[in-house]
Amino acid sequence: MAAPIEVLITSDVSGQLWNSCIWDLNSGASLSCYKGDATNHRSLCILGGQYLLGASCTKPLINVWALQRREQHQLKMICAGKVNSLTVTHDGTYCVAAVAENIHIWQVCTGNLLVVLTRHYQAVNVIRFTDNGSHFVSGGEDNLVMVWPLASVLTCIHNPSVKPEPLRIWSSHSLPVTDVHVGRGGAQSRVVSSSLDQTCKIWDIVSGDLLQTILFPGSVLSVTMDAAELRVFAGSSSGHVYCVHLYGQPIKFERHVEDQDPEGVICYKGHSKQVTCLCVSMDGSKLVSGSHDSSVKIWDIFSGQCIRTLPHKGHVTNTVIVPTPQAVLDPAVKPTLPLQSFKRHLVSERRDDTGADSRVLSLRIPSSLGREQKFEENLFDNQDGSVEMGTSEASKEELKRLKVINRELYTFAVDNILNKQVT
Amino acid sequence: MAAPMESMIEKLLNNSFQKYAVQRSGDLQLQSFVKVIETNKLLLKRDDEGSNDIVGYIHQCLNNSKQRYEGLILLGVLVKQSSTAIFQKNAVTWLKLLLNILQSHCPPPVHQACCKLLSQVIDHSDSFSDVSREVTSTFIPQLLPLLLTCEPGCLSAALTCVSMCIRKYPGPVGPFKAKLQTLVEQKLANGKNYEELYECFALLASCGSGGNLGIKHTEAWSELAEGVLASLHETLSCMYSDVDMGSGSSCTGKPLAGLPPIDFSHNDRVVALFKRWCSLTKCMQALLREDFNAVARVPADDILNIIFHCLSVNTNMLMSRPTSERSLLASFSQDVHIHALYLLQQLITLCGRNLIPQGVMIVSVLTQELSWSHSEGDGHDQHYGCLREVVFETLTVWIKALDACSSVKSGETTLVKEIIHDCLPYTYTLKMTSGLSTGSKTDKMTSGQGSRKGHKGKGYHEISQGISTQRKSQPLANHSLVKAALEALYWMLTTSGWEFSQKSLQSVQEFVIRSLLALHQAPLGSLPAPYADPSCRRGLYRVLSACVTSTHANVPPPVQVALGLFSAGLRDKHADVSSYCMEAMRLCEVLIHHRVPCLKGPVVCENLIQISGQNDQEPIVSHVINKSGNQAHISLETKNGYSDASSEFTRNEEAIAGRTAGNITYNGGFSEREIRKEKGKE
């Protein structure tokens, strides 16, 4: 059987069977699972394709599993408080966690807590990175959505007098923000936020403009888009998942979606309770939804049919689709990413008491940086010289010729000088 | 198909081998024989008798002291092409034969080739368990003492071989580590300067057993890194002792033991310090580059401090109060900086986004470098051209590694200014001024736009190209600098163009459009320097496409002009340039034929109009002149041979962007204003 291109990772609140499980998206087969504790909403992520990170539901912990070590118990990182949401940059350099109304940022290779952002004034519900890891978006109970540029936030750590400020603060939601999805395009991407005020709003990071508001019949608890950003999917409190075609109709600034009005909208009905997590496969053909009715459903986006139901033991907290990590396929692969345990206190500028510099980076030097290919080219750069050496006949002849010339020169010079002196 | 091919190749091989080896009549010389084998891949995938003959012949050659070199060359070809079976069967024999050659007395070229060949065989050997066992147990202990004591002539080849041994068999090399380190440091101290030495130095950390999770290797690496850092620090403080920078950076590590202190009484102390600095930075680069099987603990902050310290002293500073030593140091300053920047590049490549917290510092250091090395172009290579080129390269490496986190926004104004300064196409201008009171003012008006108002109508200045033809011209002056600068600009726009200030982005757009127009208008065969170089032209088009694709909240992309410029670029003589224009045309085509309707229309730019309204004096003048058909005059008037027509282009662009946005009231206002302005002027 060929390896699956993408896998689905899910977790539920009970943690009875496992904490989180990796599924083959096509066959619905369970590939591997990771045990111990249970993972909170929107806090399951893969670090550098090698580790699975999940924040605990009940304790101030982040659990870490090396992906290839199935079933084995995990590493625990202790945080300042219960983590509401967790995310990492795509290259696994930084990890961002929401603890109550604060946002903590760790550098993975040193474990240093670089900065704690306090700008939201109520709990932060969700944090998402842009696809290039340059910005992250946070949404909170205080109805605000903020965009933070990682660069300027991290630069502030050298200058404590400057308080890091978000690039954008969007305050159009009238009730707490429940979910945020960041589209493609790095800093130029678009953000969809969902809220209990029954709306999804589409924002543009570059200009900070609100592009469109979509109004649903109920509170929206989860939102996502397909990669090409043609459709918005919204999971509602009633258990319905709405698929809104963004371009199917004349574009309006504000759009109302109703249950009985199917134009440009597909409603996926199947869940009996609120839908709390959504994700779309890479090719934009499958939608995965997780709900409080303890099931994960895989839908065909075009037909609206439910293809498969994966039963769980409690409220589903995370559904994540990722390209299959190498470690899932091959248990022999060892994690190479140096992961240090996250520190609880902010990093100081000075060296600590033990004399060790806490800011020394632990890194792998990838072999691609070396240049082994060089040998192939210049193995025998002096090949021509060698040939002359091999055929000593030629050099002997040359030597003979030179000797003759030398002798001639000598006799010529001597003769001339002597002759002159005589005359 | 396969069978006839096989038999044909076998025949070829037998025939040529017969011609070469058996007859020795001179039908086929060694060189041609090797060439025949290499081009036809005659030994590839052969594991039968046909190649057995050759293998036998090679062994015979290697055993015979007169034919050794010949044997080595043939073996080189064979190792490259041999099948698994042949390699497995003969590898140990080859290693022994090669070892014999190393032990015997031979001229340096033979030893050199032997070392290179050894490293190749060792490279392949670790795939075969029996061969690798042999190598580990008996071969390496015999080989390394030979390599370490080989003659200076073939040291580089020997070090290549040592490096390969460390890469493939780090354990068995362990006992020789101390000796090797002494040798390498000794050579470094003597100012030997080749890559193999640095590579070998970096690999020292991987020698011996690694312990649990390679902890010993990690410690060895840290020790080496600290040693180099301390030595770098020492060298730098020696070099800058005169300048007295005060703080610098403190360093706790122990300098490399093998490096003797620089002799202070010596005359060429500065030169020695400079050489030491070069080789130490290269050692550090090698440490940061060579693959390492354990976790490396990279003291990034300390390395950055050293680099910043090094860059903090520049030629201008040294020459402000010159002494003989300072002047000498100043003349090396550019190279010292370049080596520091190479080190910075390597550090960025390795650490990538982990350097985000230091981003603003790095960008500001790079901008400082550009500021102090700023010099006016005169159509020849710039004074600090090499340094600036490396700065731009470093900037490119930085942006590529960090994408939108690169903090270039912090130095954006200076960077854009310097890049545009370096990349302006150069045209000779000669100004003749007649005027009584404006004499002093004319000096100032080389490129400034504002100063032109003052004496309009008072005097006249004539710009002529005709008179200035008698010049030593350098059509490719600064071309590598310009290429690097344009590349940096491209990446700046691509990753962070959206957060540029409106003014910077407009100046970039204006620069690109003007330059390309100037290129299109230039007579064939005499493109302004350095745009005779196709890679520079391509770079310019790349920047234009970055302008088109980058989205900005206030500045509209110049799609209209870009389409025109790219289609003109299709006629470029050089295929690289024209093919790039084809690519870019596709891109623009996608932009103008949207695949889906747009949630957000093109930028509406009210405040743009405000800005051009404030200093509307100047553009209007150029408009009027343009309309009178005197465009050529304008193009000569500005220093770098631009046409002000492009500003009209950008303005049209804005107008059109407004129109497509469907903002009728705004657009109407704009055209009305325009008309009013023009009327008023007339």
TrEMBL record, chain A:
It holds the Pfam family WD40. WD repeats lie at residues 117-152, 170-213, 268-309. The keyword Iron does not apply. GO terms for biological process: DNA-templated DNA replication; rRNA processing. Keywords: Repeat, WD repeat. Signal peptide: none annotated. Gene3D superfamilies: YVTN repeat-like/Quinoprotein amine dehydrogenase (2.130.10.10). PANTHER family: WD REPEAT-CONTAINING PROTEIN 18, WD-REPEAT PROTEIN 18. The keyword Repeat applies. This is WD repeat-containing protein 18. One of its GO terms (cellular component) is rixosome complex.
From TrEMBL, chain B:
Keywords: Nucleus. Its main location: nucleus. It is found in: Nucleus. GO terms for cellular component: nucleus. Residues 26-190 form the Pre-rRNA-processing protein RIX1 N-terminal domain. Belongs to the RIX1/PELP1 family. This is Pre-rRNA-processing protein RIX1 N-terminal domain-containing protein. It comes from Dreissena polymorpha (Zebra mussel). The lineage of its organism: Eukaryota, Metazoa, Spiralia, Lophotrochozoa, Mollusca.
